[in-house]
Amino acid sequence: MLLLICGLVVFLGMHSVHMVAPAWRARQIAALGEGGWKGVFSLVSAIGLVLIVTGFGGARMQPYLLYSPPAWLRHANALFMLVAFVLVAAAYVPGNHLKARLGHPMLAGVKAWAFGHLLATGMVHDLVLFGPFLLWAALDFAMSRRRDRAAGTLYPAGTARGDVAAVAIGAIAWIGMAAWLHRILIGVPALGA
């Protein structure tokens, strides 16, 4: 569990620098250049991700039940995951209404992913993994929206074409994860079947 916690601190810490130390981040970008900062950011994030994956795998070997969710919540989680995949796709597909309305659909997608998994799983290691991601995404989303309003940031208007593309890409990715990838990457079927 300690490795998982260390990974979360490293990964989420690096992803929180823009919130908690924007001046320090700006100095690093000035000193290293945009590419240099992105390289350091990517390296530290990758180290954190490896620690999370390794730590979570180890923590799953010593499961402690915290609560026992009803089976129907696994199906509710599947719907949360569909929403999460569409939101993440909307972060990258240009000209969609989700991006225009939310500004930060990736963070909204992380919130949906973490919340859905907290509903459907009841082990301590699940709470330790998904709880911090939910908290981080909620804080980052709120701060990013506040920053956007203060700066008068406007996102490009959405189009039906952009909406269809975001939903289609998200749905296809969701089907792939639910049908095959969750079992391959995580070791358990998406719906627990």
UniProtKB/TrEMBL annotation:
InterPro entries: NnrU_dom (IPR009915). The keyword Transmembrane helix applies. Keywords: Membrane, Transmembrane, Transmembrane helix. Residues 3-189 form the NnrU domain. It is found in: Membrane. GO terms for cellular component: membrane. The keyword tRNA-binding does not apply. This is NnrU family protein. It comes from Gluconacetobacter diazotrophicus (Acetobacter diazotrophicus).
